[in-house]
Amino acid sequence: MKKAAFIGVGNMGGALARAACRSIGPEQMVLFNRTPSKAEALGAELGCDVADSAADAVWAAEYLFLGVKPGGMRPLLEELAPQIRDRRRVGEDKVVVSMAAGLTIKDMRPHLAGAGYYVPVVRIMPNTCVAVGKGMTALCAGEAADAYIKGVEEILSATGRVERIPEELVDQFAAVAGCGPAFVYPFIEALADGGVMTGLPRAQAVEYAAQMVLGAASMVLETGRHPGALKDEVCSPGGSTIAGVAELERGGLRSAAMNAVLAAWRRGAELGK
């Protein structure tokens, strides 16, 4: 039996599958997607087996990573529950791992009733940066799932940082770290656009901006220092950097970033209803 099945390999599910392949190897994975060609293409890329159906994926693996949108999670759980029940009858427990925004473990429980027992459920919230091993993933577990958390962490070990958090903070985490890459990419693009305006070639401007953001983030993580203190060290009195910072403040960068997180958090809560 394979260790992990990825049921739904769209942007997030596919990114997670790529990272898991580095963690546990393709021989320990099986993929399935409603659009078979998508799973087949990823399977060919990674060297993973591809299941003919979601039911076959359940039979093949212990950990079931469900990469579907929140609206598709409930019917998928109800579809899989009888297969989970049948595998329990032959002595195989399954672990459901959800990455659906806004859906709590409690929300999912009724839709697993057909399994006939208290199926272990782990909830994760990754971001797409897991695809290159630089992701940030939150993890929390429901009752009966504690014994399986280390297994999930092993599968996610090549994704980047993984942190266990209380479930009541998952939506807030998602608004910052899950949605955050989409907030940062336009900023990188805008910095590059500014570089082009000064005369830099486009490719170099993008490279310089992206590497700078990577380095600045690493400074925060590796030094543990407050971002404001690190910012102050770059700003010489009367210099060019503080002039640029003043323009960001004039343009409302901080307010826009805070409002983006709040909007994402509110929308995530709506999606779970």
Chart the SSEs and their pairings.
Blueprint: E1 2-7, H1 11-24, E2 29-32, H2 36-46, E3 49-50, H3 54-60, E4 61-66, H4 70-89, E5 95-98, H5 105-108, E6 121-125, E7 135-141, H6 149-155, E8 160-164, H7 170-178, H8 180-198, H9 202-223, H10 227-234, H11 240-250, H12 253-271
Parallel strand pairs: 1-2, 1-4, 2-3, 4-5, 5-6, 7-8
Antiparallel strand pairs: 6-7
Helix pairs in contact: 3-4, 7-12, 8-9
What does this 3D model show about the protein?
The structure is a single chain. The protein has 273 residues and is an alpha/beta fold. 55% of the residues lie in helices and 14% in strands. The chain has helices at residues 11-24, 36-46, 54-60, 70-89, 105-108, 149-155, 170-178, 180-198, 202-223, 227-234, 240-250, 253-271; strands at 2-7, 29-32, 49-50, 61-66, 95-98, 121-125, 135-141, 160-164. An 8-stranded mixed sheet has the order 3-2-1-4-5-6-7-8, with helices on both faces.
Alpha carbon gyration radius: 21 Å
Distance between the termini: 35 Å
**Overall mean confidence score, pLDDT:** 94
Main sheet? 8 strands, mixed
Task: Provide a brief overview of the structure.
With 273 residues, the protein is an alpha/beta fold.
Write a concise keyword list for the protein shown above.
alpha/beta; 273 residues; elongated; 8-stranded mixed β-sheet; 14% strand; 55% helix
